[in-house]
Amino acid sequence: MSETLNLKLRIWRQPGPDAPGAFTEYDAPGIPTDASFLEMLDMVNERLIDKNEVPIEFPHDCREGICGTCGVMVNGQAHGHEKNTAVCQLHMRKFNDGDMIEIEPWRAAAFPVIRDLVVDRSALDRVIEAGGYIGVSTGNAPDANEILIPQEVAETSMDAAACIGCGACVAACPNSAGQLFTAAKLWHLNSLPQGQAERFRRTEAMVETMEEFFGSCTNHGECTEACPKGISQDFIAYMNRDYIKSKVYNRKLAGQKN
Amino acid sequence: MLPDSKVPEGPIEDRWDDHKFKMKLVNPANKRKFKVIVVGTGLAGASAAATMGELGYEVEAFTFHDTPRRAHSISAQGGINGAKNYQNDGDSIYRLFYDTVKGGDFRSREANVHRLAQVSVDIIDQCAAQGVPFAREYAGVLSNRSFGGAQVSRTFYARGQTGQQLLLGAYQAMMRQVKTGKVKLHTRMEMLDVVIKDGHAVGIVCRNLTTGEISSHSAHAVVLATGGYGNVFYLSTNAMSCNVTAAWRAHRRGAYFANPSFTQIHPTCIPASDEFQSKLTLMSESLRNDGRIWVPRNRDETRRAQDIPESDRNYFLEEKYPAFGNLVPRDVASRNAKTVVDAGFGVGPLKNGVYLDFADAIARSGRETIEAKYGNLFEMYERITGEDPYSVPMRIYPASHYTMGGLWVDYNLMTTIPGLYATGEANFSDHGANRLGASALMQGLADGYFVLPYTIGDYLADKLNTDPVDTGDDAFTQAEADVRDRIKAFLEIKGTKSPDYFHRELGKLVWDHIGMARNKNGLEKAIGEIRALREEFHNDVRVLGTAETLNQSLEKAGRIADFFELAELMAHDALDRQESCGAHFREEHVLDDGEAKRDDVNFQNVSAWEWHDHDTRQSKHVEQLEFEYVIPSTRSYK
Amino acid sequence: MATPTTSRPAGPQKIKTRGRELPFPLNLYQTAVGKKWVMAVTGIVLIGFVLGHMFGNLKLYIGPVQENGVWHYDLDVYAEFLRELLVPLFPRTWFLWLIRFGLIGAFVLHIHAGYSLTALNNKANRAYTSKRDWQAANFASRSTRYTGTIVLAYLIFHLADLTWGLLSSNWVRGEVQANVVDSLGRPIVAATYMIATIALSIHLFHGTRSLFQTLGLANPRFSKVPQTLAFGIAAIVLVGNLSFPLAVLTGVVDADDPRVVPVSENAAES
Q1: Is B590 helix (H, G, I), strand (E, B) or coil?
Q2: Tens digits of per-residue pLDDT, B440-499?
Q3: What pLDDT does C5 receive?
Q4: What is the pLDDT of residues A148-198, one digit of tens each?
């Protein structure tokens, strides 16, 4: 049987998007160390329901660290203190008896709070919608092996594509910048041969849409530290490079009539 | 009466092409006159929405997630099959077809499976062109691996995140259509009813999960791509929000539900560690390539695993199946693990697992080799259990993973309600009684990219120049009223137990009696207990908060209510199917050596259930299956 | 009930609306990534200036030199050299003014870009109520806008003190060494100078590291270069610039050599 912890929690409660929120303190005694962080919240909620109190809404789904639904600020760190780990994969054995845990929703103008710990991350979809795809309609594809992709390229593309879209990079950034998210998608597609045709159009569209919602990068590096997939900041550099190039490329087209 | 399954005649290789030719077409200029609703934006839903958008249909896509990219397709690890024969090892469309029919234990339609194998090739092309970063060889060609005991290497993969990458491909393709306006995206909208008028599906009723608003949406056709119902077990590898509600609501409106008892249990999951456990985590089946499965010979073993001498270990799979050993198919491995655990040989603090031991593999090929192959899985295991699998054997136990059953569909993927389609895991069609590894992603994308976008035209062509039914129509207002009443009812019960309590209790019943091994007594007992628990649920569930805000308890309550009804049907189906086939194992129907005994004379069929009302048992319709190409034989792994 | 066309949440409010795109290269300055790029490029110019300025000032240590039998302070000679740059291609001081205009332009762009990006970031950001636990952000990165402000304030003081001679009655145009010794000889000025130097070094540390990222020069092949270079530049600027007030205060450098005559009796306008 696993050991148990007695914890104190300070959790952000907010009844709705426009209602004011505040921290509420809860005692959470007898939390098994084998529980995951979200299972700990499940237990707190079960106890709240027992006491006829409205349970805490928190974002969660697959609980395997891949869907990207979960994500809260735990003691001032996005997804908690465990590196390369989404909060659903953070386990209570990483905490100590008597700990006070502060849990707050992601904060950014782009991520308005819906209720309690749940925020609206639809701004990330807007960035993808702007150009985060390769425009090959179903049926257009050539044989898969006609596009040769050096293994190294497939690997670096995959490193970037591993993004789960949880928004931790934005939440951790002092400027609420969406750069790591956007850059990861850009590098996933821009590094592949299939992505070349739309490379600069894509970069321009995605960066400019991103800037409608998110802040700008001041190169702190908090995003990579918070990222449950450890996505590298180098991709932001590649995005910056491609963006400037895209502006230059478009000038070459300026002489043509639209 | 079960409608015609529309399976085409002729040589199996030509059936799909002939069928495509014979179907009615919608002229490209007319496609924009048709509106199609797609519910669910996982692999099957997003790919269908994207492709129909590309073709020119007006598509409305609905997901209850905050973004389409959260769908549970994203969790698939292993890979996707494609009969490309890139490895020159004798693979072919016919072989994939053959393997899938046989793997499904002869309970699927030959024509459907052949079509699936045929388009598997196009899926790989499409996904590669979309930028899915599949694993590559140094020369840049695609890499393959053999998966789930297949004798050829036909599985394409992107690290351990193939599902994620394929889903992102489909999601991105759909977002491209969202940008063009061909697909209208509705997020955080849960479908709570299908609207039927004059026997045809004409729209849906949804609840906006953030505001609680109930709204109606009409279209010429409705596609349900809403996934499987594995969460009926409470503990499963499914995501927390996976549910049967969309399919079940359709079932209650007249769509037949096929083979509900065919649920796949995956052998290599991390066992539950306590009551609080909310879900189980799957580890790739590939672990069985190098790990040896065993339990102690002594029930009261107290020594640490590594201190137990060889003579006191029972390598039960290797002993029982010398030829396949630890690589027997999923259902066989799962069942045997259950047998030893039930007999009291389980390991771990709760005695609910078996060892998966890498000590020999590490001694043979070195820690580095093992780390290169399974490093990320070992890391995940350690993160969850706090144990180091390099020095202590892993503990594994089977868990509910995938559901082969689902809404009955014809060859065109249309349910028994005209205009209502079901794709992906939500339908029953292609996997028979047991799904092979790396086939779920294939089927979801086959339906969405290459099958439904053609077959839906056959239905729509007749609807040219008709408008979708107005959402002010009685059919819609009635459905909306039903949905509101139902929500109100949950909030008014004001009972004493949380929705999760009931889900957990239901899960235990389903796991114990409708799980890996079933028998008459257990199933009959389960039916009674499920009914009693359901009764209690509707009288004693406590749903707090209101219907006008985000309220996850309320969402759960609605889903659990549907799981109760489904669970009962599963038990009836399992009781009725008096044979053992694939994932369905009836303890009364075994061969002399204890292996599954299939009954092709009486049960070479699909059972499709028709809903009546709560108190009347659903009536069963039977679709007889014909096997012209793959002749039924007994699976043997000894 | 009417069918809403889409029930996607309206999403968050935009913090920025896209105007009409200006012609290249002005359009670069319309976006944050472009502005960052401008900051990096002007930053390189300004780093060059800071380093050049410091190297020039090292002539303080050379003291008096003899030229055609006349003694001058080497620093004064160097200052005169700057005024005479590219003469006769340009009239005297013209090229110096060109450089100055370039620097002023770089300063203005650097500061404006920094200011407007900060304003944008403030709009994008929502503060946490609980305490943040920074993982990667360091003092330098988090204080850039403050160290920048200190440097700007000091720059104005520095110009008033040594270029325009507004703060001391002893100031004489062209007698650079004497002016410097006079100014830094006052402990309060020396202390201000030292504080500004520390702020500048911190600013340059983050700036240098950061500009690689902003210009897209990050590359795993030389992943350590930005950090090393940033440390090097910051250290050189810190050590070099801190040495001047210390040298003056301790008397290592002085301006009372009796042999020395000013470079130009009628000091031309600087």
Answers
A1: strand
A2: 999 999 999 999 999 999 999 999 999 999 999 999 999 999 999 999 999 999 999 999
A3: 46
A4: 999 999 999 999 999 999 999 999 999 999 999 999 999 999 999 999 999
- pLDDT over 90 (residue A252): no
- Contact residues on chain B for A66, CB-CB shorter than 8 A: 74-75, 161, 164
How far is it between the farthest Cα atoms of chain A?
Answer: 74
Find the residue in B nearest to C9 (Cα). B187
Q: Are A148 and B140 in contact (CB under 8 A)?
A: yes
Q: What are the structural domains, with CATH classification, of chain B?
A: 31-264+402-463 (3.50.50.60), 266-400 (3.90.700.10), 474-616 (1.20.58.100)
List the single residue in B187, B472, B476 with the smallest CB-CB distance to C8. Answer: B187
Residue of B60, B474, B480, B549 for testing the chain C interface, max C β-carbons within 10 Å: B60
Q: Give a three-class secondary structure readout of B155-186.
A: EECCCCCHHHHHHHHHHHHHHHHHHHCCEEEE
Domains by residue range for chain A, with CATH: 4-115 (3.10.20.30), 121-253 (1.10.1060.10)
Output the pLDDT for position A156.
96
Pairing outcome for strands B394-403 and B263-269: antiparallel
The set of residues, in sequence order, having a beta carbon less than 8 Å from that of B630 and lying 6+ positions away, is B97, B98, B101, B102, B106, B110
Residue-level length of chain A: 258
- Chain A residue closest in CA terms to C140: A220
Would you call C1 an interface residue with chain B, using a CB distance cutoff of 8 Å?
Answer: yes
Q: Which of residues 480-539 of B touch C (CB under 8 A)?
A: 480
User: Hey, what's the torsion of the CAs at C242, C246, C252, C256, to 10 degrees?
Assistant: 100
- Minimum Cα–Cα distance from C38: chain A residue: A244
Kindly state whether B47 is in contact with chain A, defined as any CB-CB distance less than 8 angstroms.
Answer: yes
List chains adjacent to chain B, taking adjacency as at least 3 C-beta pairs closer than 8 Å: A, C
Q: Phi/psi at B421 (nearest 5 deg)? A: -110, 155
What are the chain B neighbours of A139 within 8 Å (beta carbons)?
Answer: 122, 126
Per-residue pLDDT band at C10 (split at 50, 70, 90):
low
Q: What is the pLDDT of residue C3?
A: 43
Residue among A107, A243, A254 minimizing CB distance to C128 = A107
Cross-chain Cβ contact B72/A67 below 8 Å: yes
Give SS3 for A11: strand
Instruction: Return the active site residues of B.
Output: 330
Alpha-carbon gap, residue C71 to C165, rounded angstroms: 24
Residues B108-132: pLDDT tens digits?
999 999 999 999 999 999 999 999 9
Q: Where are the domains of chain C?
A: 30-78+109-122+139-250
Q: Does B209 touch chain C (CB under 8 A)?
A: no
pTM of the model: 0.95
Write out residues 130-189 of A within 8 Å (CB-CB) of B: 130, 132-145, 147-151, 153-155, 157-158, 161-162, 164-165, 188-189
What mean pLDDT value characterizes chain A? 94
Q: What's the ipTM? A: 0.96
> Given this model, what pLDDT does residue A194 score?
96
For an interface test with B, give the residue of A51, A58, A66, A153 to mutate (most B CBs within 10 A). A66
Q: For A52-108, what is each residue's pLDDT tens digit?
A: 999 999 999 999 999 999 999 999 999 999 999 999 999 999 999 999 999 999 999
pLDDT exceeds cutoff 50 at C72: yes
Q: Tell me how far apart the alpha carbons of residues A187 and A158 are, in angstroms, rounded to a whole number.
A: 9
Instruction: Return the C-alpha torsion angle C125, C129, C135, C138, nearest 10.
Output: 70
State residue B372's pLDDT score. Answer: 83
Is C12 in the B-facing interface, judged by CB distances under 8 Å?
no
